[in-house]
Specification:
82% of the residues lie in helices and 0% in strands. By secondary structure, the chain is mainly alpha-helical. The N and C termini lie far apart (75 Å).
Amino acid sequence: MILSTFFELFYDNLMETTWLELIAVLFGILSVWFARQANLLVYPTGIVSTVIYVYICFNIQLYADMGINIFYTSMSIYGWYVWTRKDDMQRHRPIRWNTKTQQAIGIAMIPVLYVVIFGLIYVFKQDDPEYMQSYIPYVDSFTTSVFLIGMFYMARKKIENWIYWIAGNIISIPLYFVKGLVFTSFQFTVFLVLAVFGLLEWIKMYNEGRAREQKFVKDLVKSSAD
């Protein structure tokens, strides 16, 4: 019965989805797919998705969500810039874990962002008491805060970005399902699976990169000794 209801809601949501939204969802999934591979295409595909969502949110008067997608777009441009920079040895930024300080700052920023985002939602939604008295704005504010930290860490090529995406996706799946947006809930399920694979892939690439660096140092020391 529950499964039947799920597919009915999914079908209804799918039928109500515009082609523009489908394109945004497709490019959003492509962006996560490329992120998993640490491929620079994560950013142009992500920008297409978020720009479309800015337009969609503006048309349906979801101004807080529009602002969030503007921020996502800005962070994608920033990440694109960071990923293309090279150091003095012409090397691109490597994948790294956060330091303890960096991780502490990220965790500390979540409540700060939460207050800011909830404040924006209140400004635009205070005339909707039914919405404001529900749990949705509180959960929305929290997941968005987590996603923003994840986006920043992705731009800095930090492995922990995937942990933030995984946490946010786990919360978003039931949130959007309860809101009746089953298609969006399904999209976050896809994001969750890709994020788990992304975490594993980045850890693997990090270990391989560190192994290459250590071999380079050993070869350099050996050649100097000879």
